[in-house]
Amino acid sequence: MPNRSGLAEKYRSRIEDITDNMVIAMPMSKGVPIMLQRGEVFFGRLVEDCVAYEFTTSLIAKQLQPLPAWIITLPYDVKKIQQRAFVRIDTALPVQIAEIIDGKVVEDKIINAVTKDISGGGVQIAINRHWHIGTNLLITVNYPEIGPVTLRSQVIRVQQPQPDREVFWVGIKFLEINEKDRGNIIKFIFKRQLEQRRKGLE
């Protein structure tokens, strides 16, 4: 965020809570709270497992109790620096998959699978089926607190971690997703990361 000279400055904080918005510890400089106007946009950086993610947000309000904090909007324009475009987290969620052939969904051959990891831009699943890169799919991911989200998608990566086992890790990219669904997924990911971080401190 800019200082009085208009130059960008960096301040440390931490995520305290995630609900409809995000609560972060009030940034300080030499023990003095950073002054920011309501509605002002700023950039954040989150480091998770030695990987950095950048995002955009804005200040909604400030609070002093129970701890000095800022209430900010949920992050958007989340980017993994110089790598993936979205934050990714390992988690197992049920998925239903149907192939799309010649533009038509093959509804009589639904396949059940489980995610290996998820992001706002796609999922990776573990499955005993091999698809070619470029295969179009209609997938339904059942997200806790969000519900099922059905999206047209495409296979972009296939790995076989153990050559002697017919189990594949399939990377799937969302082709069509509205910003509301993407925002809900990213919110779920940030909330799950916060829960995992808190468990690690117990």
Ordered list of secondary-structure elements with their pairings:
Elements: E1 15-18, E2 22-25, E3 28-29, E4 32-33, E5 41-48, E6 51-63, E7 69-72, E8 76-80, E9 88-90, E10 94-101, E11 104-105, E12 111-119, E13 122-127, E14 136-143, E15 147-159, E16 168-174, H1 179-201
Antiparallel strand pairs: 1-2, 2-7, 3-4, 5-6, 6-7, 6-8, 9-12, 10-11, 10-12, 10-14, 12-13, 13-16, 14-15, 15-16
In short, what is this structure?
The chain is mainly beta and 202 residues long. Helix content is 11%, strand content 49%. The radius of gyration is 20 Å and the shape is elongated.
Key words describing this protein structure:
six-stranded antiparallel β-barrel, PilZ_domain, 202 residues, 2 domains, mainly beta, T3SS_YcgR_PilZN, cell projection, elongated, 1 helix, flagellum, cyclic-di-GMP binding
Task: Describe this entry's structure for a reader.
With 202 residues, this protein is mostly beta strands. It has two domains: 15-80; 88-198, Beta Barrel (Thrombin, subunit H). The chain contains one helix and 16 strands. A hairpin with a 2-residue loop joins strand 12 and strand 13 (122-127). The radius of gyration is 20 Å and the shape is elongated. Keywords: Cell projection, Cilium, Flagellum. Residues 9-75 form the Type III secretion system flagellar brake protein YcgR PilZN domain. GO terms for molecular function: cyclic-di-GMP binding.
